[in-house]
Specification:
Phytoene dehydrogenase-related protein, FAD/NAD-bd_sf, seven-stranded mixed sheet, three-stranded antiparallel sheet, FAD/NAD(P)-binding domain, alpha+beta
């Protein structure tokens, strides 16, 4: 087995580089959430291959409202693995009623979110989905069977509607909505309830950050592959698929090497795979037009001389996980509305992460790496604006948005690396800057992803070609689910062939001995 990669850095959006002397900076993802629940790390024994996760605990922090904002000043919200500690924080910031509601919410949505985890690890067939979700309706203890209609309303409803049914505090709802929105769609869209409810699982296993950076996961995967006899080639990616009689027979690389193989698994964007197939693309692939959208977000990688400090809060508490810098869902709605109109957000909404607080391999003593994510920045601006010209000014606006909650942050910044939607496309081959490849709305999930014709990981009409990666079920985010399911699909398809070959071999040997 050989993995070919066009980039000189392995891992795409799950990679880490030395951005400044002695400073390691992630190029894409930083907090790993889904993979810590998928079982992939344990199944491949990646710990033995060098992967070590640092738990993000507390995994979420939402600051108190800035003085002068509508509503009373208060205490921050701190979300920990410890459910009791989390509920105590909610009680202090939002009241006892919402704290009790949150405890019930985790109890109800914990099993439901585990069913989502199960569905993510299967091919998105009707039978697979039924196996994952059917047990949710079963009677439990003294509770009767949950009607399917009630489950449908919850799962198909919006995140906002779910939050409004459960909680009263806008601060709590804003923090949970901002967490849920990290998948892409606003929490006003149908089908986003489960994105919010994923928080229930974080009281079992929190997000994690690999020691040495996000690329630690990729490096462990490489080590495991090579230990099993595989190879990795960087700087010489696939240029086209080799096809004979409607079957893929390998790939030709940029350098002209021809690699012959009965199976090719394409982990790149589905539209990049279409280009690799060229005139040999069958209709299912040639006609694929999944919704890519108009960008996703903008990322700042900041080298600072201090961690973000929130008034009255120990940085050891605020810096461990996701700093959800949003106190009102109206901010999210406004930013998304601007994105829909092809405009820059009038009020940027930041999410900050600073894992150098717990991982001293990322930066020299006295320095820190802070990642600031601003969501809903359009790739193509309605006024024709040039991202190369706008990058620094937008970066400063996002820095100022963090500084509003953590005074002094702007002064701590020594260096900035700005990943605009355009740069995300250039640097990581993320088409139109969409870090999820294909939009994550309800119409592009499960058996509809990337299109109904391609949702089975196979490419109808082009035997031997398989799809994986963020373009396929279950979508973007660091999970490993699509790769594992694609591998299982390949093995399932190859076993009958292997059995047939073995039987033919036995028949030949038997004939020779007669």
């Amino acid at each position: 087995m050989e993995v070919v990669e066009r980039d000189e850095v392995l891992g795409g959006a799950v990679s880490t580089v030395e951005r400044w002397p002695g400073v390691r900076v992630d190029r894409g993802s930083s907090a790993h959430v889904i993979v810590r629940h998928s079982g992939v790390v344990e199944e491949l024994d990646l710990a033995a291959a060098g992967l070590r996760y640092l738990d993000c605990d507390p995994w979420g922090f939402a600051p108190a409202p800035v003085p002068g904002d509508p509503g009373p000043d208060g205490r921050p919200l701190v979300f920990s693995v410890d459910l009791d500690a989390t509920c105590a924080s909610i009680a202090a910031a939002c009241g006892d009623a919402d704290a009790a509601a949150y405890r019930r919410f985790v109890g109800v949505w914990g099993p439901r979110s585990r069913a989502v985890v199960d569905s993510f690890g299967r091919r998105p067939t009707p039978l697979g989905l039924a196996r994952a979700f059917w047990p949710l309706g079963a009677p439990s203890g003294d509770a009767p069977r949950t009607p399917g209609g009630d489950l449908a309303v919850d799962f198909l409803g919006s995140g906002d509607a779910l939050l409004d049914r459960w909680f009263t505090s806008e601060r709590l709802k804003a923090a949970l909505a901002w967490f849920g929105a990290q998948s892409g769609p606003p929490m006003s869209e149908p089908g986003t309830a489960a994105m919010v409810a994923w928080v229930a699982l974080l009281h079992d296993t929190p997000p994690g950050h690999p020691v040495g950076g996000s690329g630690g996961l990729t490096q462990a995967l490489r080590a495991r592959l090579e230990a099993d006899g595989g190879t990795v080639t960087l700087g010489d990616g696939a240029a086209r698929l080799l096809v004979e009689d409607g079957r893929v027979t390998g790939v030709e690389t940029v350098s002209g090497r021809r690699l012959h193989a009965p199976v090719v698994v394409a982990a790149c964007h589905v539209l990049a795979t279409r280009d690799l197939a060229g005139a040999d693309a069958p209709p299912a692939l040639a006609d694929a037009a999944p919704p890519v959208g108009n960008g996703f977000g903008l990322v700042l990688r900041a080298l600072t001389d201090a961690l973000p400090t929130y008034p009255g809060v120990d940085p050891a508490v605020s810096s461990q996980g996701l700093q959800l810098l949003c106190t009102d869902r109206a901010q999210l709605a406004a930013a998304h509305g601007d994105w829909l109109g092809g405009r820059l957000p009038r009020e940027p909404v930041p999410l900050a992460m600073s894992f150098s607080a717990s991982d001293d391999t990322l930066a020299p003593p006295g320095q820190h790496v802070v990642t600031v994510w601003g969501q809903w920045y359009p790739y193509e601006l309605a006024d024709g604006g040039d991202w190369d010209a706008l990058a620094q000014a937008e970066a400063q606006r996002l820095v100022a948005a963090v500084d509003r909650h953590a005074p002094g942050f702007a002064d701590s910044v020594q260096e900035l690396y700005v990943q605009t939607p355009l740069l995300l496309e250039r640097e990581l081959s993320l088409l139109r800057g969409n870090v999820m490849h294909v939009e994550m709305g309800l119409a592009s999930m499960f058996s509809l992803r990337p299109t109904p014709a391609l949702a089975d990981y196979r490419v109808p009409g082009l035997a031997g070609l398989y799809l994986t990666g963020a373009s396929t079920h279950p979508g973007g985010g660091v999970s490993g689910n699509s790769g594992r399911t694609a591998a299982r699909t390949v093995l399932a398809d190859r076993r009958p062939l292997a059995r047939a070959r073995a039987a033919a071999g036995r028949a030949v040997r038997a004939a020779r001995t007669r």
